Amino acid sequence: MWFKRDLRISDNDALEKAAKQKNPLICLYNLDEERLDRKDVDGIHIKWELDCLEQLKFELEKLGGKLIFNFGNIVHKLEEINISYGIDTIYSNEETGLKWSWDRDKSVSEWSKKLNVKYIEFPTNGIIRRLKSRDNWKKYRDKRVNHDITPTPIEINSPSDLNSDPIPEIEELGIFARELINRPKPGEKSAFETLFSFLDERGRGYRKGMSSPISAESMCSRLSPYLSVGCITIKQIIYHTKRKQRKVKQDPRSSKNLGFSTSLSSFQSRLAWHCHFIQRLEAEPTLNDIAINPELDKILIKDFDEQKFNAWKNGMTGWPFFDACMRYLKSNGWINFRMRAMIQSIASYTLWLPWRDTGNVLAKLFLDYEPGIHWSQVQMQSGVTGINSVRAYSVIKQSQDQDPNGVFIRRWVHELRHVPDEFIHEPWKMTEVNQKKYNCEIGLDYPLPIINENDSRKLGIAKTYSAKRDPAVKLRSKIVYDIHGSRRKSNFKKIKN
Ligand SMILES: Cc1cc2nc3c(=O)[nH]c(=O)nc-3n(C[C@H](O)[C@H](O)[C@H](O)COP(=O)(O)OP(=O)(O)OC[C@H]3O[C@@H](n4cnc5c(N)ncnc54)[C@H](O)[C@@H]3O)c2cc1C
Questions:
Q1: Low-confidence stretches of the chain (pLDDT beneath 50)
Q2: 195 alpha carbon to ligand 1 midpoint, in Å?
Q3: Is 53 part of a structural domain of the chain?
Q4: What does each C-alpha distance from 168 to 175, 189, 200 come to in angstroms?
Q5: pLDDT computed for residue 474 by the predictor
Q6: Helices marked H in 134-253 — which ranges?
Q7: Residue 199's CATH number
């Protein structure tokens, strides 16, 4: 059983089938060496995986299973195992990743064919392999994610002379990971504790609380890091959410639960988005490199401006709310959806920075890095898909809406901690006397805004709209819609007309 991004024993089709067959079973996890050189991979990702793997090893051993750990090339490791034990079948779950992971899986497939070893992959979540048309996607996805949960094996029969490998600390592998504050607890058990704490109470205010970084921290589900390494499946989350939805409806105090009901419906929509976006990567594994609408990308030429890039990356733009969000993200490895969209759209529209570079920075910052969602969203928030609305966030509006009293800003931008509400969103408007009074000289203690935000954003929007009108771009957008577009009626009309 070759574990990839499916670090769980429950609802794991490959493991269930592998445990049922008659031969002794070896469980293998391979940390692909080539990942360490990738621009989108960070030490925090590897550390998280290894910590989740430690939990998986514990659960497997309870069932009698043994887990081999390897850091290197998967085919070399399979060769080695084959020499010692003779492999009959390799079981694994499908992974929708970037091109390098497809190439890796292809090399395993070729190796197994050459050696007459069976290689069986099982589908996971709502991603449909070899999908012919997006028109049918929802039907297949719903069927898949509403299917019964796959039972957990009750016993694993591993070779008697085999011992599990110790799971190394990342330092032993020469990898560095920055310390995160509030990092979630690793493993499958913690994934379920997180899900139930959300469905029991935290999710009550999800709908209203998801947009502000202050409330989102506790009101969002926080399941994304678990989903990214497969400690839990979308099917399991949907199963428990539906049960909760039924319970909330039946509750005699259900009028009080109205908000909870709406929150749970919104949550279900996000779970569908998860699969919708990963399905895009399934169709085009080069999303980190090639724009969904390359014609549009060609027109929207963006030069790499190092000064703007560094200010953006380091949370030193001089826009307090933006800087607070960036610094929070760096420390926590997580921020809510609205703020991620704002951070990327400011990079692409306001600062006019190339999306591949900023996308890689964000990939490394997110503990929950999921290539299919990530690169689809980076492209969407950069206006290079041609099928999504142009949405360029105003940092001042977001600041006033999501942090009206500057609580979040003062917590994360210490330079501004004495600045009163009146100036907290636009401290550059303070007089020199006030700057002295509030211990923050703009341009000295805290930067002046890197550029005029309002003018630059409007210019970015105008250039993007103009590019979208190009006939070649429009033509490509229609093709893009056929492959990737959500089949919501409003979207259909917009693109087809
Ligand atoms: C530029 C950008 C990059 C992003 N990169 C990632 C990423 O690498 N990994 C990742 O998991 N999410 C990513 N997202 C989507 C979203 O921000 C996160 O899924 C969410 O913030 C995770 O927190 P949560 O689990 O508490 O979410 P909740 O709001 O509780 O949602 C539950 C789950 O639904 C899915 N989901 C929620 N929002 C979205 C969305 N907009 N699109 C697709 N699926 C969604 C996720 O799997 C999430 O875990 C990105 C968004 C943007 C704008």
A1: 492, 496-497
A2: 15
A3: yes
A4: 11, 21, 36
A5: 93
A6: 137-145, 188-200, 206-209, 213-219, 224-229, 234-250
A7: 1.25.40
Give the domain-ending residue among 283, 312, 346. 283
CB 239 within 8 A of CB 149: yes
pTM: 0.96
Q: What was the pLDDT predicted at 358?
A: 98
- Whether ligand 1 lies within 6 angstroms of the CB of 300 is answered as no
Q: Is the CB of 370 under 6 A from ligand 1?
A: yes
Quote the pLDDT of residue 490: 54
Work out how many domains the chain is built from and give that number: 3
CB distance 178 to 327 below 8 Å: no
CA–centroid distance, 261 to ligand 1, in Å, is 20
Q: Provide the token pair at 342.
A: 């704002």
Q: Are residues 313 and 446 in the same domain?
A: yes
Give 97's contacts (C-beta < 8 A, 6+ positions apart): 5, 281, 285, 371, 372
| Candidate from 125, 145, 224 with most ligand 1 atoms within 8 A of CB, to mutate | 224
Residue 494 confidence (pLDDT): 53
Q: Which atom of ligand 1 is nearest to the CA of 371?
A: 8
Query: What sign results for the dihedral spanned by CA atoms 197, 200, 205, 207?
Result: positive
pLDDT of residue 50: 98
Residue 13 lies in a domain: yes
Q: Would you say 141 and 272 are in contact if contact means Cβ atoms under 8 Å apart?
A: yes
Based on the fold, state whether residues 37 and 69 are members of the same structural domain. yes
| One-letter amino acid for residue 481 of the chain | Y
Burial of residue 466, with CB atoms counted within 10 A of its CB: 0-12 exposed, 13-18 middle, 19 or more buried: exposed
pLDDT of residue 497: 43
Q: Is 443 exposed, middle or buried, given 0-12, 13-18 or 19+ CB atoms closer than 10 A?
A: exposed
Judge if 126 and 202 occupy the same domain: no
Ligand 1 atom nearest to 221, measured from its CA? 30
For residue 492, what pLDDT is reported? Answer: 47
Q: Give the pLDDT confidence score for residue 168 in this predicted structure.
A: 97
Would the CB of 59 count as within 6 Å of ligand 1? no
